[in-house]
TrEMBL record:
InterPro entries found in the cross-reference section: Metal_Tscrpt_repr, Metal_Tscrpt_repr_sf
Biological-process GO terms, alphabetical: negative regulation of DNA-templated transcription
Entry superkingdom: Bacteria
Protein name: Metal-sensitive transcriptional repressor
Biased composition (Basic and acidic residues): 12-26
Stored Pfam families: Trns_repr_metal
Length: 110
């Protein structure tokens, strides 16, 4: 798919549908999907621990591990977003992207 001239190669408006989309390289997609698959497995494991009445502290430790894994995915996505989309939008004069990113970061650090 060819990118419109001047648009960000990672995040840009969708093909006439008004939705913003990300277009990460295949390596990044694989890494994100692999991480999310592991997290999904962790969450299923936590549910199983609860169903089996596993000691609360052990369950809480697994929850903390899953949260840390999700945080890692968020950091990777934020890094890719900052180095591509945000950078490109700032170059094109769109300073509103700073407010958007700040809102996102504030949500992540709650």
């Amino acid at each position: 798919m060819d990118e419109p001239e001047g648009s960000c190669p990672v995040c840009h408006e969708g093909e006439g549908d008004g939705e913003r989309r990300s277009h990460h390289d295949e390596r990044t997609i694989r890494e994100l999907v692999n991480r999310m698959n592991r997290i999904e497995g962790q969450v299923r494991g936590i549910r199983g621990m609860i169903e089996r009445h596993v000691y609360c502290d052990d369950v809480l430790n697994q929850i903390a591990s899953a949260q840390a894994a999700l945080h890692g995915v968020a950091k990777l996505l934020l890094e890719k977003h900052m180095k591509s989309c945000v950078k490109e939008q700032l170059r094109s004069g769109d300073d509103e992207v700073v407010d958007e990113v700040l809102k996102t970061i504030f949500r992540l650090i709650k």
